[in-house]
Amino acid sequence: MSRMRSTSHMVETMYKYQYSAFGLNIGTEFPLPELPLVETSEHIDVSISLGQVPHTLADAVSVGTCFQTDGERFLFCMEGVARILGEQGQHLTVDLEPDTTWSTLRLFLLGPVAAGLLLQRGYLPLNGSCICINGKVVILTGFRDAGKSSVAAALSLKGHSVLADDLVVIYSDKKSEYLQVVPSYPRLKLWPEVLQQLGIQPDSLPAMRPGSSKRSLMLERAFVRKPLPVEVAIDIQLGAASEIEIEPLNGLQKFRGICARISNEALYLAINGQQQLLGSCAALAKQINMYRATRPFNGVSVASFADEIERIVHG
Q1: Which residues pair with 228 in a beta bridge?
Q2: pLDDT over 90 (residue 21)
Q3: Which of 65, 285, 310, 314 is deepest in the core (most CB within 10 A)?
Q4: Do 230 and 99 fall within a single domain?
């Protein structure tokens, strides 16, 4: 996996808000309350400003459902929300649609747009959650609604610390021989029925955005704020079995499993190329132990599944 690109720059404009996420200092013109605030710094890694953004990139080499890239820049377009231009892993320009809400923008900005920016910086972003269980860093991957965030929430209530939810970022630090997870920001996105299983009243938490039943659970002490080496990955799947099934994965299975969970593979390929993608996935597969955990569609509580994840990690 390539080393993280050095893209810090001087703050030419004093941004009103400065935050920390994904191991980066972020300066922005508008608030991002999900992110931890930091003291004002003369150096920031990423700046975010409001401005005009084109509807297309003239020399686009890859075009997806809501993104396009010319290899140096990327453009994300979400109808009714915003167009966002990312440049060199350093700057985002946000062009808001008239009727959008800030909470809807932030979901878009801190999810797929953040993944695109991190790709430009040489990181490997995966769809999943990440938690530290008794000192071991565990990535939880799987398809949408497989229960990654739910299990992470249940494990956090058992005293384990969360590193990331929704977007897990892997990078290679020249000071360490191991690939590490960079903490994202202290929030979990959970459905009301999951919160009720965990003994939390959904109405006590804010909605992710207007009209959404999904809730935002902010973490305070149960959040890790420093990068840690990855040791285990567990790919969560849903099945028709009557009980939880655990299967250890071998080298090729691990490699394929990691490749399947890359956040926006098409954009990764357009920006970094196939050789880097395959090299990054192979390096991660070599470092970790990986399992496939199949949970029944019905009949197993989130807490019980979290107990099983603990048993896997403890060996």
Answers
A1: 181
A2: yes
A3: 285
A4: no
Contact 165, 187 (CB under 8 A): yes
Write the burial class of residue 99 (CB in 10 Å: 0-12 exposed, 13-18 middle, 19+ buried): exposed
Compute and round to an integer the Cα radius of gyration of the chain. 19
Q: Is residue 2 part of a domain?
A: no
d(CA 168, CA 128): 6
Residues 309 and 165 in one domain: yes
Q: How far apart are CA 81 and CA 116, in angstroms?
A: 17
Residues 132 and 97 in one domain: no
- Domains identified in the chain, total number: 2
Residue with tokens 């403890």: 314
Is 1 inside a domain boundary? no
pTM above 0.85, yes or no: yes
**pLDDT value for 3:** 42
Q: Rounded CA gap, 278 and 2, in Å?
A: 11
Smallest CA-to-CA distance from 113 within 73, 58, 152 is with 73
Question: Do residues 172 and 306 both lie within one domain?
Answer: yes
